[in-house]
Design a protein that fits this description.
The chain has 299 residues and is an all-alpha fold. The chain folds into two domains: 136 residues, Cytochrome c-like domain (Cytochrome Bc1 Complex, Chain D, domain 2); 147 residues, Orthogonal Bundle (Cytochrome Bc1 Complex, Chain D, domain 2), CATH 1.10.760.10. It contains 13 helices and two strands. A two-stranded antiparallel sheet has the order 1-2. Helix 1 crosses helix 6. It starts with a helix and ends in an 8-residue tail after the last helix.
Length: 299
């Protein structure tokens, strides 16, 4: 428990940034399911990258332990480690962060409580933050309650789920899970037909394999009510735009995922009614209790 409490304090503390101006929570805010409502998050001095912040929840079940949109980190601890020195994020150095925390009136005691030693280093900082992040569990959406027999879905939500699971209509479940995989992601990298050519290579930048160009990690569909904008670059402001993309906006490219079976027709071609029902189902995956859990808020 001491490690979790320490990680939570560090997550919300701007002391990790070079000028004490931003914290992890500035790009991963609880009210947005630990994501950011801006298209591109802002680092120190307003510096921007070219991606939208991924939400943080149910991270302990990321079985391949690759994080970020392009999978460039290999563990949750590494994911917590990277932003501190990133030039578009906190722009600090680990020596500076360690010195600030070591000379802080509270942190040496907190590290003593968590690790049995008041010595502070980057490894322990990252471990503490990762401990807190693993507690961010979202499991009480309306659909979760439906699976437990505690509530019923509306006819619209039920039809939306049927569309989601139907290969001839929505065909969403291959990448985004199902009632049998309520993480609502396969944690795999796909080219989902956003572009014909790529300015951001995604996984291909990490692996160096051209066959991976344009592939990005499948985000969970949980908490979509709170995590707009959508896609790796935040190009879609609304769920309706996302649905329209898969319905009639798919673009072909050399690395398009085979699961995008109807890319030749531009998409799955949903009716207006089907789109509304699918959206109703997707919204039933949002967990109001998660974004309001006092255990996850700024201590």
């Amino acid at each position: 428990m001491e490690g979790i409490a320490l990680g939570e304090k560090l997550f919300f503390d701007p002391v990790l940034s070079i000028d004490n101006s931003i914290s992890c929570a500035d790009c991963h805010a609880p009210e947005f399911a630990f994501s950011d409502n801006r298209q591109f998050s802002e680092g120190v001095n307003g510096t921007q990258g070219n991606r939208n912040s991924m939400p943080l929840f149910n991270l302990a079940w990321n079985y391949d332990e690759h994080f970020f949109w392009d999978g460039n980190t290999f563990s949750l601890e590494h994911q917590a480690f990277v932003p501190v020195t990133d030039s578009t994020e906190m722009k600090s150095t680990w020596i500076d962060v360690q010195n600030k925390l070591q000379n802080h009136p509270e942190y040496p005691t907190l590290f003593e409580n968590a690790f049995g030693s008041s010595n502070i280093d980057s490894t322990r900082i990252a471990k503490a933050i990762a401990q807190f992040e693993r507690t961010l569990i979202s499991s009480n959406s309306k659909f979760d309650q439906f699976l437990l027999g505690e509530t019923d879905l509306s006819p619209q939500e039920q039809n939306g789920f049927s569309i989601f699971m139907d290969e001839a209509r929505g065909d969403c479940f291959h990448c985004h899970g199902s009632d049998k995989n309520p993480l609502w992601t396969d944690n795999i990298f796909h080219n989902n037909g956003l572009d014909e050519t790529f300015t951001d290579l995604g996984l291909g930048r990490v692996t160096g394999d051209p066959a991976d160009n344009g592939k990005f990690k499948t985000p969970s569909l949980r908490n979509l009510a709170y995590t707009a904008p959508y896609m790796h670059d935040g190009r879609f402001a609304t769920i309706d735009e996302v649905i329209n993309h898969y319905s009639e906006g798919l673009k072909n490219s050399a690395t398009i995922d085979p699961l995008m079976k109807k890319v030749g027709q531009g998409g799955v071609g949903l009716t207006t009614s089907d789109k509304a029902d699918l959206k109703a189902f997707l919204l039933s995956l949002s967990d109001y209790d998660f974004i309001n859990n006092p255990a996850f808020l700024n201590p």
